[in-house]
Amino acid sequence: MAELIVWSPAKINLHLEVLGLRGDGFHELAMVMQTIELLDRLRLSPSADGRIQLSCDNPNLPTDGGNLIVRVAELLKARAGLPELGAHLHLEKRIPVGAGLAGGSSNGAAALVGLNNLWGLGFSEPELAVLAAELGSDMPFCIGGGTQLCFGRGERLEAQPAPQGADWAVLLLKHPAASVSTPWAYQQSRQQRQASYLEGEAAFEQRRQALRQGPLLRALQGLEPLPPLRNDLQAVVEPAEVTVRQGLALLRRAEAALAVAMSGSGPSLFALFADLEAARRAQASLAGELAAAGFDSWACTLRPQGVSLEE
Ligand code: C5P
């Protein structure tokens, strides 16, 4: 096989609830994650020299073991017991970095699916999801994408039907100078909110069940209006990040915005709309203020799948 292209989508959190602490030091989460049509593109070709070589059109990204793509490739080679496998990978980066959009995790998932295919390793999707969870909490979700409930660290997945009742779209904002460290955001959450964390599996399961049966999932099926979106990390990031406060204020003023929230550990922000036209109209009407405040913005639809091979 000469060359393979894999699309690697961003995700947003339609819900992010920090339930409590886990024995492994991570946080127990209850989330609804959704892939969107904001895509990186990963090009892969095999090489015979046993080396993994990554290049990227964004010079600010690491292309060594600091990049999940390289870690994924090394892990796959080790698990397959085939050290002679090599590949050239080139990443065209469109998803903003350090944004809470799982761009790095999605690239890792794209590398998993792409290299499994390129090298003909034959790992099944569930096997790839187990490998993915070893390298990042959001990576298993990024393989299948679409709309999923994500529990545990984020790796316990329950796929949901595609949203109905509207041609859902988002307007996404990210200030290029702002970035939030995910470990920092969770640490802040722990410092500020640990007293109210739940304890024990029974309490966690009660919240999972409340989310499964709650108004957000009903709204995504077009059965009722969207409730306000919940992101528990927003409460700790918003006071610390002026661009998060500014961006949320701008989005809340957008005409026809159905709901507004921060994604993941931020600092990216989004508003949901009933269709792409409405998201684009909001982007156009806010254009002056977005430019003045220095925000980058994207209008795009929701995406019903995760990483995908280009046909
Ligand atoms: O798994 P991932 O590399 O995305 O996690 C980055 C960091 O975010 C972890 O090292 C941890 O500090 C924090 N985290 C957490 N609980 C989770 C996911 C991430 O505390 N469920």
Written account of the structure:
It is a single chain. With 311 residues, the protein is α+β, with helices and mostly antiparallel strands. The protein contains 11 helices and 12 strands. The chain has helices at residues 68-80, 103-118, 125-135, 139-144, 182-193, 201-212, 215-220, 234-237, 242-252, 276-285, 287-293, and strands at residues 4-21, 27-47, 52-56, 86-92, 147-152, 156-159, 169-174, 230-231, 259-262, 269-273, 296-301, 308-309. β3 (52-56), α1 and β4 form a beta-alpha-beta unit. α1 (68-80) runs parallel beside α2 (103-118) and α2 crosses α3 (125-135). The structure holds cytidine-5'-monophosphate.
Write the layout of secondary structure elements.
Layout: E1 4-21, E2 27-47, E3 52-56, H1 68-80, E4 86-92, H2 103-118, H3 125-135, H4 139-144, E5 147-152, E6 156-159, E7 169-174, H5 182-193, H6 201-212, H7 215-220, E8 230-231, H8 234-237, H9 242-252, E9 259-262, E10 269-273, H10 276-285, H11 287-293, E11 296-301, E12 308-309
Parallel strand pairs: 1-8, 3-4
Antiparallel strand pairs: 1-2, 1-12, 2-4, 2-5, 5-6, 7-10, 7-11, 9-10
Bound molecules: cytidine-5'-monophosphate (C5P).
